[in-house]
């Protein structure tokens, strides 16, 4: 089925949402819900389809060409198609790297536009933000070096002289973009939307890991921003087990990993250990159990 469905997608235009939406979703789940052997073949099939990749290029570009909806929570058919496009491309980036699959057609994206889609949200629906962040995580994990993707739009030579060395080390990111993105991610966490919180924390984790590889001083500086501490207190719901929230545990694990002692103190660590000792671990949600496990391993 991958052959006829991917060929059908390649013959469509971005405005053919009724046909493209289920088709792209089928391709996405074909990649994820199959055996590793079949997965490798599925990736090869999709990446060999030049018309499909050209279609995906056009779909992604619609993200910053169309006007935002009047209701940010409303997911229009056009936005739903954008979500499917971003998620499929993120998966293709991941699996192309994993299997070193041959690429017949590259995708070209302006990094500034991608970052601005998150930084200047303009009433974008939650699911679209989550999808774009999934893509951003994929390119950060690969250090912007995927053979499937060509990044354009960032020239470190145009940056102010005082930050030129840092910008060169973080290329293709610039320091100003990093801080703007971090602030935007912090603001998104305050919404306390479960799906959004999971995506934001995962994106923040990947961003700091990327920075640490590129420039340890910058990574530690970002991880130790005082605003992170206010963010943690905002996330506490005031309940009896306020620390045992997946996003709080993952954030604290991140700060522990990068030794941000001004963000998380021994007192908070002790409180988490106390709450974990008093909790019925068998009744904790899977996401909380996993986050608690990672936190304890980091401690």
TL;DR of this structure?
This is MEI1 protein. With 299 residues, the chain is mainly α.
Low-pLDDT ranges: 155-162
Q: What is the H/E string?
A: HHHHHEHHEHHHHHHHH
Structural class: mainly alpha
β-sheet strand percentage: under 5%
Number of DSSP E strands = 2
Radius of gyration: 20 Å
Distance between the termini: 48 Å
Protein name: MEI1 protein
InterPro entries: Immune_Signaling-Apoptosis_Reg
GO biological process, one term: meiosis I
Describe this entry's structure for a reader.
The protein is mainly α and 299 residues long. It has 15 helices and two strands. The longest helix has 23 residues, at 77-99. The protein is globular. InterPro entries: Immune_Signaling-Apoptosis_Reg. This is MEI1 protein.
Helices and strands in order:
Elements: H1 2-10, H2 17-32, H3 36-47, H4 50-61, H5 77-99, E1 107-110, H6 111-119, H7 126-141, E2 149-152, H8 164-170, H9 175-189, H10 194-214, H11 216-223, H12 227-235, H13 246-257, H14 266-278, H15 286-298
Parallel strand pairs: 1-2
Helix pairs in contact: 1-2, 1-4, 2-3, 2-5, 3-5, 5-7, 6-7, 6-9, 7-10, 9-10, 10-11, 10-13, 13-15
């Amino acid at each position: 089925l991958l052959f006829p469905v991917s060929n059908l997608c390649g013959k469509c235009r971005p405005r053919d949402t009724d046909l493209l939406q289920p088709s792209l979703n089928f391709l996405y789940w074909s990649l994820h819900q199959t055996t590793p052997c079949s997965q490798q073949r599925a990736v090869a099939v999709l990446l060999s389809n030049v018309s499909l990749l050209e279609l995906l290029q056009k779909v992604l570009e619609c993200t910053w060409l169309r006007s935002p909806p009047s209701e940010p929570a409303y997911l229009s058919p056009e936005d739903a198609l954008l979500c499917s496009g971003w998620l499929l491309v993120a998966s293709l980036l991941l699996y192309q790297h994993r299997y070193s699959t041959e690429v017949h057609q590259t995708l070209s994206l302006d990094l500034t536009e991608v970052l601005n889609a998150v930084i200047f949200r303009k009433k974008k629906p939650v699911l679209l933000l989550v999808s774009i962040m999934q893509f951003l995580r994929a390119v950060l994990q690969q250090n912007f070096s995927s053979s499937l993707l060509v990044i354009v739009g960032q020239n470190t030579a145009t940056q102010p002289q005082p930050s030129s060395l840092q910008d060169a080390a973080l290329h293709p990111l610039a320091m100003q973009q990093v801080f703007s993105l971090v602030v935007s991610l912090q603001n998104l966490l305050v919404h306390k939307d479960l799906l959004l919180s999971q995506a934001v924390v995962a994106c923040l984790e990947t961003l700091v890991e990327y920075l640490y590889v590129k420039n340890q001083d910058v990574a530690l500086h970002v991880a130790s921003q005082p605003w992170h501490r206010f963010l943690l207190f905002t996330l506490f719901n005031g309940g009896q087990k306020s620390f045992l929230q997946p996003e709080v545990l993952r954030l604290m694990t991140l700060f522990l990993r990068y030794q941000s002692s001004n963000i998380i103190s021994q007192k908070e660590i002790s409180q988490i250990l106390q709450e974990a000792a008093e909790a019925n671990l068998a009744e904790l949600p899977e996401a909380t159990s996993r986050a608690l496990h990672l936190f304890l391993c980091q401690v």
